[in-house]
Amino acid sequence: MMAKGPAYNIPFRRRKEGKTDYRLRKKLIISKLPRLVIRKTGRNIITQVINATVIGDMVITSAHSIELRKKYGWLGSLNNLPAAYLTGLLCGLRAASKGVEKAILDIDLHTPSRGAGVFAAMKGFVDAGIEVTHDESILPDEARIRGEHIAKYAEMLYSEDADKYSRMFSEYLSRNLPPQKLPEHFEMIKEKILFDFKDKPQ
Question: Considering only CA atoms, which of 109, 108, 110, 116 is closest in space to residue 135?
Fold first, then answer.
């Protein structure tokens, strides 16, 4: 039987669909800080800096992991930890150039597991010089951010099962990036991003 009466409120559609936590959204808005919104899809990382206004959310700036490929020549996956960090770094540098100094993290319904990609993206954003309150223990370590775990696994697999190595890393190899070289490639792309903003006001 459907509930009804003067005290009954129809739930917001996005709450019914499990897409938005409105209690969390209210807390974030009350902070009066821009929200660092990080979303991870099956293929990409999306970061946005958003201000809440009476007429709706206003995007200050954003970055999408596909930009890493198109603009900076990134050859790795677009949704792993290194890509998440670089996307967050790009978004943070853009936000800093627009005068953003502090933000609050918004991962909405994403489960906050330690070392997750959303926290790698936040780390990149923070490394761009913007303050985001967080617990250091949730961040992935620097080695994982650089993709060293991927490189070490690829090296082991290459020596033990070349066929499996070729299948598992076929996307890397199709773009002429041996996965063992991922940490060095990460550093090169990071330098390109930083160079792009070195003369812009922070």
Answer: 116
Short-list 121, 132, 134, 126, CA closest to 47:
121
CATH code for the part of the protein at 21-196: 3.30.420.100
pTM: 0.85
Q: Could you list the mean pLDDT of each consecutive 10-residue stretch along the chain, which spans 202 residues?
A: 49 46 56 88 94 85 98 97 98 97 85 87 97 94 97 97 96 97 98 89 54
Pairing between β-strand 56-64 and β-strand 102-106 as defined by DSSP bridges = unpaired
Quote the CA–CA distance of 173 and 167 in Å, as a whole number: 9
Query: What's the pLDDT score for residue 12?
Result: 47
**3-state DSSP call for residue 36?**
strand
Backbone angles phi, psi at 101, to 5 degrees: -115, -25
The residue extents of the domains of the chain are 21-196
Is the sign of the CA dihedral 146, 127, 93, 135 positive or negative?
positive
